[in-house]
Structures are given as C-alpha cells and as structure tokens.
Design goal:
This protein is of the alpha+beta class. The chain is built from 19 helices and twelve strands. It has a domain at 71-316 and 383-455: Orthogonal Bundle (Cytochrome p450), CATH 1.10.630.
C-alpha cells in the first residue's frame, strides 16, 4: 500500500514499514528496537528534566549534554573556561556524568560552603578516597575531625616550626648546589620537576627525618607524580590496570610502606631517649609527655596516613607556589632587588647562616612577596565538596543532597574592589596596614576557610620564603620567556605550561 497525502497509512502499515525497508529484520526485532528507542528517549528526557529541576533559576546551560554533560571541558580544564563559569553568576550550575554541580564564584558563597560542615564535606575528586584511603583523617567530619585536628595542630607550633626551619635550610642549599649549570655556556632549563623534587625531599626530611633512607625520598617523589595526575578534577574513577588511578594506588602503597617504616623507627628512637629531629619525632615526644592528656595510641599505619595526607596537602600546592614565586621574581627584577636588599640588611653580610624564625620575622618584604605570589597564582583554584544534607545556600534555592558544591578561590583573590589591578604582582599592597587587601582578609582564600582550613599555613609560607630568600642570595636568574610562559596548565594545581625555563648562575657578593 503506497503512502501519500490522499491515502493515510494505518498504524499496522507504519509498524510494517521498517521490514519493507530492512527486510532482514523480523517483526519481533522491530518491536524490540522501538521499545529500546522509546526507553532511551524517556531516559534522556528524564535526565534533562531532572537537571532543569535541580538547576531551577541558577545560571548555566539550559540543557545538559546527554549522559556526559561538561565531561569534555573537564578533561581539558582551562582557566578561561572556569572564568566563563564564574562570570555567569555568583552561583551557577553544570553537570558531569549526571553529577549535578553548583559552583560558587563569590567570597560570600565560597566561605559559606567551607563553613557549613552540617551540609557539605570535602570530597576533592571522585578518586580521592581510593588513592588517599577512605579512613584518612582529611575525610573526617564533625567532632571526630575536630579532635584529630587538635592533636595535629601541636605539630605546627612555633617551637615545632623552629625545628623544621633548620632542616628546610639544609635541604634547600643541598639541592641548589646541583641546580647550577656549570658548563661554559649555561642554558635555560625548566625548573618545574627539580623544584618538585626539592619540595618533596624537604617535606619528607621535615616529616620523617633520617628514619627513611635517601633513595626513599627519590622513589616517593618519582612515584608521586602518578598521584598528582590521578587527582585531576576528572579521571576514569576505577583503579583498573593501566589507568591513572591504578598507578596512583601503586604509588600510594610504596609511599605508605616507607612512611610506616619512618613511624616505626621514630618510636624506637624516641623510646630510647633521642631528641626530636623531625615532625614524627615531635609527635611521639608529645604523646610521651606525662602532662599530655590527648590520645597516645597511634599505630604506624595511622601515622603514615597522616604524613601521607601532609604530603598530599603540601607537595603540589607548595611546588606550584615555589615555581610561580621564581617566575614572579624573575619577571619583576625591581622586586627581586628589594628582596636581596632585605636579605643583606637582615643577614649583615653573613649569607651562609641558616634561616631562623627570628630572621623571617624581620623580613616583611619577603613575606609580602610570598603572600602576593600566592594571590596572583593560587595553587588551588577550587575544592569540590559533596552535599550530605539538602543545603539551603541562599533564599529560594537549596542544593539537593548528593550534589557537589564547589567553592572557588580565584575570583575572591582577583576581586578588583579588594585588590586594585588584580592581575598585577604588587607585594607592596600587603605592606600598607590600611590597604584594601589588608582590610578584607576574608577574600584571601589561598588556605581555604572553616574547619578544613589548611593546618600548615605557617609551615608552607615559611618554606616558600626560605627557598626564595636563599635563591635570591645564591643565584642570578634569567627567565627564558616562551609562548607558553604565561599559559596555565591545570593538573591538580596550577603550573606554567613551559615548566618555567630558568638560567641560574652563581651570584657573587661584594
């Protein structure tokens, strides 16, 4: 029966049509295809309806790409794409693999998320618990988290920092001795990976002292790059062989074995009356103090987990901070000259003397350089949180349970009302007590806020200041600018895409 305008087809004829077109299909196959197509269509329509229902009036795409959402953008994150999302509204919506996400771009909403443990908990990235261990203290919340944190705070007192600063100075000078190109014609080289190793070696010696051998720090540093890559915002989440998450799990096991050995050796040394020489030693000293009333029975594995979390918190964030610190100083020779002048004044010509906390207290300009460098290029631009209870984030809108909320730091740190010429590297803004920067401390979200605010703020700032201060004395710097020098690569943290190419030559003092 022909189909035309004057002869409408019956339902039965229409159902038979595919068979006449595709004669190899049976009536049953055709029915199955129609049923499957109807189910898929219903699911896709439902997906869009759920997304629209959750989104309500928030800015964001009107429709989400079926199934994957913004997955492609997440696979290749860029500051430009993040800026588009932030600029779309104080709160905006998106979806990745049917995970509904609300992104905050203002200081008010970002701080609200960070300070609302009743409604949201840090989840970092999907694979974080697989890599860092779900029992890691960083994933604790509520009273349990507060009590654990109270113990760990004691590892970053001024007394403890005084112990660490000498280790930092010694390890930094050891690495710098190998950085210099001693050939007749020194060439610029990327410092990204050697700065990462300097940072890892320093952190491991501060945390573990000599309780692990030298080759362990190199092995952990080499393997840790797998962990960094697996903690990108989007990765295949299951640890199947060959995946980034699988490699990260193997790297985590190697690091944990070494860290557990350090804990074991530290306990033995401290029980034998040794003086503390590192963070774990200080922890054991505190636990052995008869006046200490807190928990004392930490297993080697628990101690290793804590130190591993410290590495996670410090390694890539501090490495990013150091690399951009070098780049900022190289690109602003007038600032580097002021750093050197301050070093000469405080040190009174003794450039070989180890850094002390008292020295750092007398270097306000160097500290301002560190603070400003971290503001201009914050290592961490955002931290994903999981909504554990329907979150009334603003009047008229509640983030559904199971969604993600992401407080963003970059917009707060580049607010032109707080930081005039926000993209300009200007340490002097921190030296004026009445500046808008100092008058608005809530905007300085480099270290987060709330119950999960960074534990090691003073430690990390001290390390950056020490490394940059020593480098300013030891080296003349030349930054080889490339087309990628100012482009940002977002891995777990921010890095210059060309690895920050530097030529470092020994500096002579008059």
């Amino acid at each position: 029966m022909a189909l035309n305008a004057s002869s409408p087809a019956s339902t039965q004829d229409v159902l038979r049509l595919p068979i006449s077109i595709l004669p190899f299909l049976s009536q049953e196959s055709t029915t199955w295809l129609y049923t499957t197509a109807a189910l898929l269509s219903s699911m896709l329509i439902l997906e869009q309806a759920v997304y629209r229902y959750k989104k309500r009036d928030l800015p964001g795409d009107t429709w989400t790409i079926p199934l994957i959402g913004k997955f492609v953008d997440s696979m290749h994150p860029s500051l430009e794409n993040y800026m588009k999302q932030w600029n779309s509204g104080a709160l905006s919506a998106l979806s990745v693999f049917n995970i509904f996400i609300v992104m905050a771009s203002t200081t008010e909403y970002s701080r609200k998320i960070l300070n609302s443990p009743t409604y949201a908990e840090p989840c970092l990235v999907y694979s974080a618990k697989t890599i860092l261990n779900p029992k890691n203290w960083v994933f604790l919340n509520g009273r349990e988290h507060v009590e654990y944190r109270r113990v760990l705070n004691m590892l970053f007192t001024r007394k403890a920092l005084g112990l660490y600063v000498d280790i930092q100075d010694r390890i930094t000078r050891k690495h710098f001795a190998s950085w210099v190109d001693k050939s007749d014609k020194p060439q610029a080289k990327p410092i990204m990976m050697i700065a990462r190793f300097l940072n890892m070696d320093t952190s491991l010696r501060v945390f573990c002292g000599n309780h692990i051998p030298d080759h362990a720090t190199q092995e952990i540093s080499d393997k840790y790059w797998s962990i960094t890559r697996a903690l990108e915002l989007v990765n295949f989440p299951f640890p199947l062989p060959g995946t980034k998450v699988y490699k990260a799990k193997q790297a985590s096991k190697i690091a944990m074995d070494w860290l557990a050995l350090a804990a074991k050796n530290s306990k033995i040394a401290m029980s034998n009356g040794a003086e503390p020489e590192c963070l774990i030693d200080e922890w054991m000293r505190i636990c052995m103090d008869p006046n200490y009333k807190g928990r004392k029975d930490f297993s080697d594995h628990e101690i290793a987990l804590v130190v591993f979390s410290f590495l996670f918190a410090s390694q890539d964030a501090m490495s990013s901070g150091l690399i951009y610190g070098f780049q900022h100083l190289a690109d602003h020779p007038e600032v580097l000259a002021k750093v050197r002048s301050e070093q000469e004044r405080v040190r009174e010509g003794n450039f070989d003397a180890s850094f002390t906390l008292e020295m750092l207290d007398s270097m306000p300009y160097l500290n301002a350089v560190v603070k400003e460098s971290l503001r201009v290029r914050p290592p961490v631009t955002m931290v994903p949180y999981k909504v554990t209870k329907a979150f009334p984030i603003k009047d008229g809108y509640t983030v559904p349970t199971g969604s993600m909320v992401i407080p963003s730091f970059y917009p707060s740190l580049h607010d032109p009302e707080v930081y005039p010429e926000p993209d300009k590297f200007d340490p002097d803004r921190w030296l004026d007590a009445n500046s808008s920067a100092n008058a608005n401390p809530k905007n300085y979200l480099v270290w987060g806020s709330g119950p999960h605010r960074c534990l090691g703020i003073e430690y990390a700032s001290m390390n950056m200041a020490l490394v940059l201060g020593i480098a300013a004395m030891m080296f003349d710097w030349e930054h080889e600018l490339t087309s990628l020098s100012n482009d940002i690569e977002i891995i777990a943290t921010l890095f210059p895409k060309d690895g920050c190419r530097m030529k470092l030559t020994p500096r002579t003092h008059s």
